[in-house]
Design brief:
The chain is built from 18 helices and 13 strands. With 411 residues, it is an alpha/beta fold. It has two domains: 270 residues, 3-Layer(aba) Sandwich (Rossmann fold), CATH 3.40.50.10540; 77 residues, formyl-coa transferase, domain 3, CATH 3.30.1540.10.
């Protein structure tokens, strides 16, 4: 749709995304699109910006070791973007935003249902003037249904969407995950929808509206846990670190720490028993098959738990790896980012940042592509860092027009 100076070996080169999303779900998703070569223009409120800029400590340190205005939370989801500030509550700001929409392929927003309608920035108001625009709304509960006007947050969605009922020890309180996974997964579904809509537009020339809900996404990715309930009518149990339908498949304490044992079939169980010198149970009818092990879970776990406490984690992991039995350590984040496999896969990346003299470290993109690899071109921008650049290069504004907008606090 638009001309772009970006390197043509990027899979989404030539696409421009107007990113009006904040917090995590939308920004994380558009960051991925940016890594794949799309130009991401992040639209923020003047003097305020994305809420997560202030979600700290911790904050990025400047060259003197003092806190900047950029939180680690914000840095996690805003790489490969340009920041422009626009007050679209003002008619001149609305006009400016519509000019940017005319130059864009995709618009992403996560305002409450109906909030943008009063500014004429909802899809219904825009589609006649921009028929090939792909417009994506990401909300807590979607654009329809009795909850459509409610605000939705990851923690709330984990609770309402059933995830917390499955997380935590069986006799303890329900627990959220340590990462805002409902937000992250909703963004992933959003990107799948965007790429599908782009394919449709390539075939027909038509844009379309995408309605993504955090609750829908959470329910969808319950996956096999959801199907357990739908198949049996029984509420899927909370199992802590155990698995409802595979045994042994959980955390075990060793002599010095914890490991995960993830035995997925009967052959692996035989190998485990051989290495653990538990041959006497490997052929017993109550343990020989996974179905039998699930039925006799409690007795078997007692035997395995006692055995694993006799040796160190290193002994078990190295020995079981040699046998082809899946096992591994329970790493903290220091251990994760010291891990040779993680490092070899370039899951830590250095980038220059406007607020500090040193490179900052960011989490790398897991997508590895042979012809159109991801790239890391733009560090998470400071608020409004690219406002003048975007107005000059995208909209071809002259200096007088930019000065006019600044004097009236439109940008």
């Amino acid at each position: 749709m638009i001309e772009s100076s970006q390197n043509n070996n990027k899979s989404l080169s030539g696409l421009r995304v107007l990113d009006m999303s904040r917090i995590l779900a939308g920004p994380n998703a558009t960051q991925i699109l940016g890594d794949l070569g799309a130009e991401i223009i992040k639209v923020e409120r003047p003097n305020i910006g994305d809420d997560t800029r202030k979600w700290g400590p911790p904050f990025l340190k400047d060259g003197n070791g003092d806190d900047t205005n950029e939180s680690s939370y914000y840095l996690s989801a805003n790489r490969n973007k340009k920041s422009i500030t626009i007050d679209f509550t003002n008619p001149d700001g609305i006009k400016l935003l519509k000019e940017l929409i005319a130059k864009s392929d995709i618009l992403v927003e996560n305002y409450k249902t109906g909030n943008l309608k009063k500014y004429g920035l909802d899809y219904t108001s825009l589609k006649a003037d921009f028929p090939n625009l792909i417009y994506c709304s990401l909300t807590g509960f979607g654009q329809t249904g009795p909850y459509k006007d409610r605000a939705g947050y990851d923690f709330l969605i984990q609770a309402m969407g059933g995830l917390m009922s499955l997380t935590g020890v069986p006799d303890g309180e329900p627990m959220k995950t340590g990462v805002a996974i409902s937000d992250i997964m909703a963004g992933m579904y959003m990107n799948i929808a965007i790429l599908s809509a782009l394919n449709h537009r390539n075939n027909t020339g038509e844009g379309q509206y995408i309605d993504i809900s955090l609750l829908d996404s959470q329910v969808a990715w319950l996956s096999n846990a959801a199907q357990y309930y739908l198949t049996t009518g029984d509420v899927t149990p909370r199992m802590g670190n155990a698995h409802p339908t595979i045994v042994p498949y959980q955390v075990f304490q060793t002599l010095d720490s914890y490991i995960v044992l993830a035995i997925g079939n009967d052959k692996q169980f035989q190998k485990f028993c051989s290495f653990a010198e538990l041959n006497e149970i490997s052929e017993m009818a109550e343990y020989k098959t996974n179905q039998a092990r699930v039925k006799n879970r409690d007795k078997l776990i007692q035997v395995i738990s006692k055995k694993l406490k006799e040796k160190t984690s290193k002994y078990w992991i190295s020995g079981l790896e040699a046998m082809g039995v899946p096992s591994g350590p329970v790493n903290d984040l220091e251990e994760v980012f010291d891990n040779e496999q993680v490092l070899s896969r370039e899951m830590i990346i250095p980038m220059k940042h406007a607020d500090t003299e040193q490179d900052i470290k960011l989490v790398g993109n897991p997508i590895k592509m042979s012809k159109t690899p991801v790239s890391y071109d733009i560090s998470p921008p400071v608020l409004g860092e690219n406002t003048d650049e975007i107005l000059r290069e995208v909209l071809e504004y002259n200096e007088d027009k930019i000065k006019y907008l600044k004097e009236r606090s439109i940008i």
